[in-house]
Specification:
With about 230 residues, the chain is an all-alpha fold. It has helices at about 10-15, 15-40, 45-60, 65-75, 80, 85-90, 95-105, 110-120, 130-145, 155-170, 180-190, 195-205, 215-220, 220-230. The chain has a single domain (about 5-230), classed as Ras guanine-nucleotide exchange factors catalytic domain (Son of Sevenless (SoS) protein, Chain S, domain 2). It contains 14 helices and no strands. Helix 3 packs antiparallel against helix 4 (about 65-75) and helix 4 crosses helix 7 (about 95-105). The radius of gyration is 23 Å and the shape is elongated.
Length: about 230
């Protein structure tokens, strides 16, 4: 599934079914967090939900589940959530610091430099972010030919690909020993909780309407006129 960018081909569902499932699962968890926030009209409850998921993301970090950290951070950076300025203003300073620290950890800067450092320092069990490795493999596939100028197999390219796949396999060897909770599992897998992007953004606008530039221009002058009048 990891060879020849199979996950990007037309027949990807049959050639790379598990990669497609991982990608879909990543998006579903992010969407679950955003959906939970958008269906909560009370600002105090939204603040509680942000603080809860920030704590979950930090626990994922402690468990070396970097994929989980990024899923939740991606939800916080989603335009529907990110724009809720009044909600974020009420989030505790401690939680904001935790979120900032996690965003730095999973940032794509320097080809995910911080996450790679953390990965190489930790012992399995561990769940890396698969997208990082898919990006690596795409760079290798697109930037290096399969054959040398002499028509020989390009072994240095094959070694680079093997190195990436070996690292993925390394993290597959050690399973987590976590007791399954049916209540949590059912919640996380309940697709009925997921809303579509356009619906999420409309709800976001309802929760915290956009301040129009025109209205601020209309609101500001009266006070200045009043001062002249007096």
């Amino acid at each position: 599934e990891l060879l020849g960018q199979a996950w990007m081909k037309a027949e990807k569902t049959t050639k790379a079914p598990h990669i497609i499932l991982m990608t879909r699962r990543f998006n579903d968890v992010s969407r679950l967090v955003v959906s939970e926030l958008m269906r909560t009209p009370e600002i105090a409850k939204r603040v509680f939900i942000i603080e809860k998921w920030a704590a979950v993301a930090d626990i994922c970090r402690c468990l070396h589940n970097f994929n989980g950290v990024l899923q939740i951070c991606a939800a916080f950076m989603n335009s529907s959530v990110f724009r809720l300025k009044k909600t974020w203003e009420k989030v505790s300073k401690t939680t904001k610091q935790t979120v900032d620290k996690l965003q730095v950890l999973v940032s794509a800067d320097g080809r995910f430099r911080n996450m790679r450092d953390a990965l190489h320092r930790c012992d399995p069990p561990c769940i890396p972010y698969l997208g990082m490795y898919l990006t690596d493999l795409s760079f290798i596939e697109e930037g290096t030919p399969n054959f040398t100028d002499e028509g020989l197999l390009n072994f240095s390219k094959m070694r680079m690909i093997a190195h990436v796949i070996r690292e993925i396999r390394h993290f597959q060897q050690t399973p987590y020993k976590i007791q399954m909770s049916p209540k949590v599992t059912n919640y996380l897998l309940d697709e009925k909780r997921l809303m579509q992007d356009d619906e999420l953004y409309q709800l976001s606008l309802c929760l915290e309407p956009r301040l129009s530039r025109l209205s601020t221009k209309i609101i500001l002058p009266p006070s200045s006129f009043g001062s002249h009048g007096s």
